[in-house]
Amino acid sequence: xxxxxxxxxxxxxxxxxxxxxxxxxxxxxxxxxxxxxxxxxxxxxxxxxxxxxxxxxxxxxxxxxxxxxxxxxxxxxxxxxxxxxxxxxxxxxxxxxxxxxxxxxxxxxxxxxxxxxxxxxxxxxxx
Length: 127
Hints:
By secondary structure, the chain is of the alpha+beta class. The protein has a single domain (about 1-125), classed as Cation efflux protein, cytoplasmic domain (Alpha-Beta Plaits, 2-Layer Sandwich). It is built from three helices and six strands; from the N terminus they run E-E-H-E-E-E-H-E-H. The chain has helices at about 20-30, 70-85, 115-125, and strands at about 1-5, 15, 35-40, 45-50, 55-65, 90-105. The strands form two sheets. Strands 3, 4, 5 and 6 form a four-stranded mixed sheet that branches. A hairpin with a 2-residue loop joins strand 4 (about 45-50) and strand 5 (about 55-65). Helix 1 crosses helix 2. The longest helix has 19 residues, at about 70-85. The protein is elongated, with a radius of gyration of 25 Å. The model has no long low-confidence stretch (mean pLDDT about 80).
């Protein structure tokens, strides 16, 4: 759990952000990025850690075929940085993006040979 002392308008108190809050913001930013999908796992391929230098984010995604992987990675980094820094008072120190695989478009199924049942029915008609 990370905490930050934030004093708007001279009020006393402390705001505490949990790792889950920052992870949720990261998920939101990834959902806004076209051409990727999250890794289907418990933590969705997202690791967030708080250090002195700032917040370190390590994510794994699946890219869609036809999108430039370097462009996707750059957009992910920029979107996460912008959203986390605008929604919290944390600074993003680093965003590591791991593209685990690529989803290729579905190909049209090939023509299937006729079923044996149809051939047997034709033979019975000819008898």
